[in-house]
Specification:
about 475 residues, disordered C terminus, about 40% helix, VC0802-like, alpha/beta, single chain, Carbamate kinase, eight-stranded mixed β-sheet
């Protein structure tokens, strides 16, 4: 790597924006702050990773999920063919030149058929009693995840070269690589010899390494790769390009004329957003940037001249509500009349939730009740519920589909957000099932019915932009 050391940026493009790749060539890649001195990390085209693994929101099985439960059925192989079709449609929509399309078709064919042969061989091997398929599923998940990012990075490099840019495809996926290397070694080896001032590296969001990114970060791996590249190369800034600005709420929900762009906030706020499913960046990725002293900027990919929102560790001003967002969850409630003074209930619940890989958004407890607000597919929730009944046979276990509407800010002290929020929701005719706030005063959570979530976010957004005006709420 040459030209590193606070002279370049490392920039990430998400899957939704990748599906509008042709629109980004002029304003993002060829406009803005110069052609080079920029490293781009790309996600798979929208929907591809869902087909390869499982649908992120619905849990619908992809290739990995089908293969993990396979007997003699070959549903995973048909799904892999669906992936090939989706990849072809994605690059067919962004590549105009027949030669580029042919190269992309060949690339997809080589990767997909290579993966199919690998899975077929592993399935055949697992038919012998000495081998267990379950021992290899994490590796298979990594292999499949890398297909999507390798495809999108390859296609992006083709497109940019066709427009005269010196774009270089940088594959961190470890395809047919027999070496065992760490994440840092994988990145440094792949970027060695590239002059950022003369070339534009287009890097896969997935990186194969001994740490196993999927094992630790699952679907957050691309942001970890992006952050590690920024930290290792000592980037001047890390930039995430999204479809919208980081705003006070989803503009599609509350209206583009009502939201305001945040402009500047803290990594603490970024963590709260991630917890609510509105990820500015994965918490582990944010940690890497914080420790390396690299500021993060979130921009609108289609407005490259706008500075967007800077996230760093510097003071962000007076207390203020900044963002309102929401998330559908299940309220998993354990009630045991004799719980008072008895230890172990919380530990058992956490062990079961961890074993089933259920994401905990929030929790609350009192003398005889522990409620976890969790996000997971219904099948996982049922498994957790069954295990809890077995572990705590005297307890009443209840599961209820609810939503959390949250007001978030770097400092909410003195703003009376809970009281005002309850008032706003009551005025909107929305029943609040529960409400909670920690002493750190960075967020307030209102538990409401799922059908009320959109209306709840709109009502609470008045705390950020009262009367439809883009103004911050002042401390009382």
């Amino acid at each position: 790597m040459t030209g590193t050391g606070r002279t370049h940026t490392v920039e990430k493009i998400g899957g939704t924006s990748m599906s509008r790749l042709r629109e980004l060539v002029g304003p993002l890649f060829m406009g803005g702050g110069g052609l080079y001195g920029r490293v781009f990390v790309v996600s798979a085209f929208a929907g591809v990773t869902d087909l390869l693994l499982e649908h992120k929101k619905t849990g619908e099985p992809g290739v990995h999920a089908l293969f993990s439960g396979v007997g003699s059925d070959h549903g995973w192989s048909r799904k892999l063919s669906d992936v090939a079709g989706a990849m072809g449609a994605a690059h067919g929509a962004v590549l105009d030149h027949p030669a580029d399309r042919g190269l992309a078709d060949d690339f997809v064919r080589e990767r997909i058929e290579g993966a199919r042969n690998c899975l077929t061989d592993l399935q055949r091997l697992a038919s012998y009693g000495h081998f267990r398929l379950s021992q290899h599923m994490t590796i298979i998940r990594e292999l499949l995840a890398g297909l999507g990012e390798a495809h999108s990075a390859y296609v992006t490099a083709l497109l940019l070269r066709r427009h005269g840019l010196a774009a270089r495809f940088v594959d961190l996926s470890g395809w047919r690589d027999e070496a065992e290397v760490s994440l840092d070694e994988r990145i440094e080896g792949a970027l060695a010899g590239i002059d950022f001032a003369r070339e534009m590296p287009i890097v896969t969001g997935y990186a194969q390494c001994t740490e196993g990114l999927m094992r630790e970060f699952d679907r957050g791996y691309s942001e970890v790769t992006f952050s590690r590249i920024a930290a290792l190369t000592r980037a001047r800034e890390a930039i995430i390009h999204k479809e919208f600005h980081l705003s006070s709420a989803d503009p599609r929900l509350v209206g583009t004329d009502t939201v305001r762009i945040i402009g500047h906030t803290s990594y603490d706020v970024a963590d709260q957003l991630s917890n609510m499913g509105m990820e500015a960046i994965h918490p582990s990725a944010a940690k890497m940037l914080r420790q390396a002293g690299v500021a993060l900027r979130v921009t609108n990919a289609f407005e490259p001249d706008h500075p967007g929102t800077l996230i760093d560790g510097t003071p962000t001003g007076a207390p203020a509500c900044e963002i309102v967002t929401g998330r559908n969850v299940h309220a998993l409630e354990l009630f045991e009349q004799d719980m008072v003074g008895v230890k172990g209930y919380d530990a058992r619940t956490l062990e079961i939730l961890t074993r089933h890989r259920v994401y905990i958004v929030s929790k609350v407890s009192n003398a005889n009740t522990i409620t976890h607000y969790v996000d997971a597919p219904p099948k996982q929730i049922r498994r957790v519920e069954n295990d809890l009944r077995e572990a705590c046979p005297q307890a009443d276990i209840g599961v209820r589909a609810v939503a959390i509407a949250s007001v978030i800010g770097h400092d909410l002290s003195g703003l009376k957000v809970m009281a005002r929020g309850l008032g706003r929701l009551a005025e909107a005719g929305i029943e609040v099932l529960a409400a909670q706030q920690t002493t750190r005063s960075v967020d307030v959570q209102f538990i409401i019915g799922r059908s009320d979530l959109d209306a709840g976010v709109r009502a609470l957004h008045d705390l950020v932009a009262p009367d439809g005006q883009a103004r911050q709420l002042k401390a009382a």
